[in-house]
Amino acid sequence: MADGFVYVNGDPDDPLAGAQVGARVRMPSFDPPWIVLHHRLDAVRPAHWPGRLFRVRSVPAVTEEERVALEGATRNLRADASYRRVFAVDVLAELSPALLFGPNGAAVVEVLDRADRLTESVARDLAAARHPGAADAYRRAWERWLSGQPNGAAYRDGDHSGVLAVPGAGPAGSPIGSGFAAISICVTAAARQRAGSAAFILDEDEDEELLVEPWSTAGAALIEAAMALGAPELVDEADRAALTAAWRAIRRS
Q1: Percent of the chain beyond pLDDT 70?
Q2: Using H for helix, E for strand and C for coil, what is the string for 72-97?
Q3: What is the CA radius of gyration of the chain?
Q4: Do 222 and 247 meet the contact criterion of CB atoms below 8 Å apart?
Q5: DSSP string spanning the chain?
């Protein structure tokens, strides 16, 4: 048995979607997708927002068939992996997803919720109100964070003006865990839902879709606001004002 954390996306077909504390949840088969149990809270990476966060305990295999299947599911995992795959868990507690984003996670959740329901009109307002010094302020906050990370020195000379995470620097990967990446995912999903293919351009060199305006700048503005609100210890008063200028503009509207 092992205790850990499970983040459940909004998929109603997920066996844990309607889970309650005290319940035992078992996958309907031994085939993937499996339950991913994270050993550490800072290792949880939400692929969608919103979702639910549980503290769980794995349930040992009860049959030889299940034991063999479980060995197969975990065979290719590294010994130091931050997660394991399981077929069944006991739900010990439901936690606030804000815990995934650090001690100021509630402020990050507010930005995430706005990103999740972003419209083109609000995206234009964010882009128009973004401070010209916000990118530099964001870069400076990253530099301050890296200076305090166990492996941060190796990354300090890079350009971090648009970075979402530096996994090699320290366990959390960023000043607010997976918060920047989650905001980026939300903005991309909102753009696709509201504007379809018109919100994207294909980068043929990288063979990937990139957001066009106003979505790209709006996303940057929300990520910059999350830096100031989620990691206030990394910014001074001037940088905080620059990072939150667009955020404050849409909150007033």
Answers
A1: 100
A2: HHHCCCCCCCCEEEECEEEEEEEECH
A3: 20
A4: yes
A5: --EEEEEE-S-TTSTTTT--TT-EEE-SSSSSSPEEEESSGGG---SSSS-EEEEEEE----SHHHHHHHHHHHTTS-TT-SEEEESEEEEEEEE-GGGGG-TTHHHHHHHHHHHHT--HHHHHHHHHH--TTHHHHHHHHHHHHHHTSTTGGGGTTS--TT----TTTSTTSSTTTTHHHHHHHHHHHHHHHHHGGGGEEEETTTTEEEE-TTHHHHHHHHHHHHHHHH-GGG--HHHHHHHHHHHHHHHH-
CB neighbour class for 35 (10 Å; exposed up to 12, middle 13-18, buried from 19): buried
Q: Is residue 253 scored above 70 in pLDDT?
A: no
Check pLDDT > 80 for residue 1.
no
- What's the whole-number mean pLDDT along residues 129-155? 96
User: Which tens digits make up the pLDDT trace of 151-180?
Assistant: 999 998 888 888 999 999 998 999 999 999
Determine the Cα–Cα distance for residues 219 and 200; give it in Å rounded to an integer. Answer: 13
Band of the pLDDT at 195, cuts 50, 70, 90?
Answer: very high
Adjacent-strand bridge partners of 186: none
The answer to whether 237 touches 140, Cβ cutoff 8 Å, is: no
The tokens for 144 are 């301050």
Instruction: Give pLDDT tens digits for 76-114.
Output: 888 889 999 999 999 999 999 999 999 999 999 999 999
